[in-house]
Amino acid sequence: MAGFPWTCAQCGAVNDPAAGRCGTCGGLAPGRARARALWVLLTLMLVAGLAVGGVLLFTGRPRPAPAASGPFPQYTTPVLPTTRTVVTTANGVTPPVTPSVTPSSTTTTAKDKPCPPDAARYLPGGTGTALLVGQTGKSVVTICRTPDGRLFYDGQARGQAASGDTHITLPAEASGDGFVAVNGDYRYQVGGGRLVVSAGSEVLSNEELTTVG
Question: Range of 18's domain?
């Protein structure tokens, strides 16, 4: 090592190469030289420990998550269930639905009355409901419906007792706003406030019919 500065392994002092030995250690007592060498060693170990601890602390820190890249994921909108609208009253009770009824000339209403006795006795079963009771200048006309739903036309000569010559009962049916009954060639049409009796194409009578009761 002649010609170059060198460092003492015991004390760490830089010595003159011409000295050939550590002048610093040589000038110290053996105990002091050993203690100084130990202090230098501890110092180096402390510095090394701090350096290693710093490296471990830095490498142990959590790294921030990388920013998301690429296209956004595709989402499907869920199909909502179809709701149903319900009308309720103030107290939360659904009002009942009243079915609509189409009026008909053959439908029994609260105003329907029993068939008059003079006509009812000629009906099957002897009873029925009067759908129409009217009179002309010559006749009393009654349309009755039996409990099984059949319709009958009853015509009587006005002011006379019922007999084969003054009375007739025929099956009838609803027709337009009135009723019609057929007896052979004869046709009895009741409706529009009229009683029309015809035979074939010939009109035998066309009288005003006034409702009774």
Answer: 6-60
